[in-house]
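Final report, Chapter 2: Outcomes

The project's central promise was a pipeline that accepts a single protein chain and returns its three-dimensional structure in a standardized token representation, suitable for archiving and comparison. That pipeline is now operational. To close this chapter, we reproduce one record exactly as it appears in the project archive, with the input sequence first and the structure output second.
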Amino acid sequence: METRMQMILAVPPEDVTAARGHGLTLAHMAYRLGGGPHLFRVNQPIPVRGGLMYIDDAGFDGRGTPDGLCQEVVRECAARGYGGVVCAFDRRLPLLAAVVSQLGPMLARQSRSFYVSEPYGRHTSTGRVLIPTALSGGSLRQRLSEAVERYGAGRVALAVERTAEDFFLPSPDGQGRPLTREELRAQMEERAPSVFFSDELCARYFTYMNRQNGAHFVLFDDAGTIRKKLRLARALGIDRALLCYPEVSDLLKDILAGA
């Protein structure tokens, strides 16, 4: 029997009203770590209650001890009725590892969910580990299968990333130039390329030649590829997915219609 997917929308404060209309769990991108460390919250244009707390580490200096911060997070969850926390930490810092290690059991005792970015998966025995979907090589199925083998399907969550990148060929470092929606649309209108689907990457792509710098490979997602990624995750027993609302707002109805 195929796993039922619970989708979570990470949403900035200014988009909460629009995002609520989709009926999904919202992860409120209104929190960051600051000096101390302390929990900082931006002003919300409307009262927020329920959903999840989403914390990022942008600009954090990595100094301090975890105890006070973890207590602040737990108190904010209680005050706002949050059902859990997403620690979307990008950098590898010892203090953030300590925060994840300490916060996990505190949330588990209160039956609150906990999600951590992939670099911090080994620092929690209870939290779900967010595995990004964006790849420039390899196989998404293999990547997710390895995560399931390491953590167990019940502790893996899909972090859906909407890919749009332009790669020079050959691309030894696997790094492409990110494209905005407008840039991708303009390229497709200008070149009218033949578009293909990569089963391995679970994304669409096309190629073109440029007189100045040669061959290019453009990799991108649409509603169809994101649905395929969600179905692949479900087939592997993964039942949670986190999507960033600003990235997918124009595709969300189509994603949900076929999910």
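Archive annotation: The domain at 165-218 is CATH 3.10.50.10 (Chitinase A; domain 3).
This record, like all others produced under the grant, will remain available to the consortium after the project formally closes.
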